[in-house]
Design goal:
single chain, about 475 residues, alpha+beta, Arc Repressor Mutant, subunit A, 3 domains, 10-stranded mixed beta sheet, 17 strands
Length: about 475
C-alpha cells in the first residue's frame, strides 16, 4: 500500500431495459431466452426499405423516470443515428439521442453512512440495443438478433461518485426506483440493467494535482462486479501512475472489460470520441414533442420514491433503517406493509411478520407478499391479537402461514388451532400452584438469588407453559410466579 493522497472520481452510465411488450422501433415481441433470431423482422434486421415506428410507451417510461429524477424534460427531442460497425448491429448504426436527450440536469440521492448524498444526473435518453454475439458453439461466432431493437433507457451521472461503495449504492437505489415506477423489471440476470463506470483518479503529488486517464468498464451486470471492478480499476490506475506517471490527455481514454473469474479489468480498445460515431438526425423518425397535456398525464403516474418511503418508515413508524430497507426493496411489499399499519397494525409487529415469515413463504411460492391472499386488514387484525396478548409471537407466525391457506379471520384460526392465550389469573394461578408443589428444589433455587436462580425460574416458567399446553399468557404467568416466589 502507498500513502499517496488521491481521490476516486466515477461517473456512471446505466442502461435500463424498458418493461414494454415490443421493441423500440418495431412490433417484435421482447422475450427472454427465446429461440435465437425468432423475434426479428425487417426493421430490426436493418433490411432495405424497412421503416421504424417509435414505441410511445417506452418514451413515456423514460419521461416518467427522468421526472422522478428531477430532470428538466425536453419539450422537443429527436432521434439520431450513431454510426459504427459491429456484427450484432445489422444497420451499421444505432438509433439513439445525442444533443437533445429526453431529460437533463437531474439528481439521485443515495443513502451513505454520512447521510443522503446527492449525485447529479447529466442526461436521460432512449436508444435501441444491439444483438448478441455468441462464441461458445465452436471455432466460430454466431449472432442472435433477438435483442436488436430492445428499448434501452440510458442514465448518465456526473462524476460525483467517490468510492466503489458509492457506485454500488447508486446502482442499487436506481434499481429500486425503476421498479417502484414500474418502468423496468430491472432483473440483471436477464440483462435488464447494465452498468458502465467511467473511472479515474485525482492524485496530489509534488505540490500539484494529476489526473489519470479515464477508463470505461463495459457491460457489468451485477452489483458485485460493479463494485469490484471500480475498486480494482482505481488501484490499477494508481499503480500505473506511480510507475509511469501517465496522466489524462486527449485521445488516451480506454475501454476495459471485466473478467469475473480472475476479478481483473482487461483492456479492450481505445475509446471512441463523439465525432467518431458521425451522429446525425435520423430521417425516418419524426421528432418527439412533449406537450403539457401529455406530460401531465405521465406525471400522474409518479409515486413516492423508495428512499423517501424508507425514511418515512424509520421516522414515522420507528423501524430500523435495515428493516425499512428490506420492506422498500419491493414496492408492492412496502405498500402492503404501509396499508397494514394504516389499518391499525403495530408497525414493528407487522414488519416482523412480513420479514420473518411473509417473505420466506412468498419466495417459496415465487410471488410477492401482497399476493399471498392476506389483506392488509387481516394482517392488522393478526398484529392486534399479538399485541393484546391473546396469542404469542410464535403463534402469530403460525397463524400467518395458515392465513395464506384460509380466508378465515385470524382469531378464528387461533381458536381452531387452540392458540388463544389464557390470561385468566385465577385459572393460571392454579397451574402455577401445581408446578410449585411438584418442584420444591427448583422453587428453593429460584428464591436463592445465586447463580442457580435464573435457570430455576426459567424452568418453572417452562413447566407452567408446558402444563397449559402453551396457551398461558407468559406475562401473566410471570407476575403470578414472581408473587408466589416473592422475588
Amino acid at each position: 500500500m502507498t500513502n499517496v493522497d488521491y481521490k476516486i472520481i466515477v461517473g456512471l452510465e446505466i442502461h435500463v431495459q424498458m418493461a414494454v411488450r415490443t421493441k423500440m422501433f418495431c412490433g417484435c415481441e421482447l422475450a427472454f431466452a427465446a429461440e435465437p433470431n425468432s423475434k426479428v423482422c425487417p426493421v430490426c434486421l436493418g433490411l432495405p426499405g424497412a421503416l421504424p415506428v417509435m414505441n410511445k410507451k417506452a418514451v413515456e417510461f423514460a419521461i416518467l423516470t427522468a421526472t422522478a429524477l428531477g430532470c428538466k424534460i425536453a419539450e422537443f427531442t429527436k432521434w439520431d443515428r450513431k454510426s459504427y460497425y459491429y456484427p450484432d448491429l445489422p444497420k451499421n448504426y444505432q438509433i439513439s439521442q445525442y444533443d437533445l436527450p429526453i431529460g437533463s440536469n437531474g439528481f439521485i440521492e443515495i443513502p451513505t453512512k454520512a447521510g443522503a448524498k446527492k449525485i447529479r444526473i447529466r442526461r436521460v435518453h432512449l436508444e435501441e440495443d444491439a444483438g448478441k454475439n455468441i462464441h461458445t458453439a465452436g471455432p466460430f461466432s454466431q449472432v442472435d438478433l433477438n435483442r436488436a431493437g430492445t428499448p434501452l433507457m440510458e442514465i448518465v451521472t456526473e462524476p460525483d461518485l467517490n468510492s466503489a461503495e458509492e457506485v454500488k449504492m447508486l446502482a442499487e437505489e436506481l434499481q429500486r426506483i425503476v421498479r417502484f415506477l414500474g418502468v423496468s423489471e430491472a432483473d440483471m440476470q436477464k440483462g435488464h440493467m447494465r452498468f458502465e463506470p467511467n473511472v479515474n483518479l485525482h492524485i496530489k503529488k509534488g505540490g500539484g494535482e494529476h489526473k489519470t486517464p479515464i477508463t470505461e468498464v463495459k457491460n457489468l451486470n451485477s452489483f458485485k462486479a460493479l463494485e469490484k471492478s471500480v475498486a480494482f480499476e482505481a488501484q490499477r490506475q494508481l499503480d500505473n501512475f506511480l510507475e509511469s506517471g501517465e496522466v489524462m490527455q486527449s485521445g488516451n481514454k480506454k475501454t476495459f472489460g471485466w473478467d469475473d473469474i480472475k476479478e481483473v479489468t482487461v483492456l479492450q480498445r481505445e475509446k471512441e470520441e463523439a465525432h467518431d460515431y458521425r451522429y446525425f438526425p435520423d430521417p425516418d423518425l419524426v421528432p418527439v414533442v412533449a406537450d403539457k397535456k401529455w406530460l401531465k398525464e405521465i406525471n400522474s403516474k409518479l409515486c413516492e420514491l423508495p428512499l423517501k418511503m424508507q425514511g418515512r418508515f424509520v421516522s414515522g413508524y420507528g423501524l430500523s433503517d435495515y428493516d425499512a430497507g428490506v420492506l422498500t426493496a419491493d414496492k408492492a411489499t412496502a405498500e402492503f406493509f404501509d396499508s397494514s399499519v394504516k389499518a391499525g397494525g403495530d408497525a414493528k409487529r407487522v414488519c416482523n411478520l412480513i420479514t420473518q415469515k411473509g417473505l420466506k413463504i412468498a419466495n417459496e411460492k415465487n410471488c410477492k407478499v401482497s399476493e399471498l391472499g392476506i389483506s392488509p386488514q387481516r394482517l392488522a387484525q393478526l398484529a392486534k391479537l399479538a399485541d393484546a396478548g391473546q396469542i404469542s409471537a410464535t403463534s402469530a407466525v403460525i397463524i400467518f402461514e395458515k392465513m395464506t391457506e384460509s380466508e378465515d379471520e385470524p382469531d378464528k384460526i387461533a381458536e381452531k388451532l387452540n392458540l388463544i392465550q389464557k390470561s385468566d389469573a385465577g385459572e393460571l394461578e392454579k397451574i402455577v400452584d401445581e408446578v410449585i408443589a411438584a418442584n420444591a428444589q427448583a422453587v428453593e433455587d429460584a428464591k436463592s438469588g445465586d447463580k442457580k436462580s435464573k435457570k430455576a425460574y426459567g424452568f418453572l416458567m417452562g413447566q407452567v407453559m408446558q402444563k397449559s399446553k402453551g396457551t398461558a399468557n407468559p406475562q401473566v404467568v410471570a407476575k403470578i410466579l414472581a408473587a408466589k416466589l416473592k422475588i
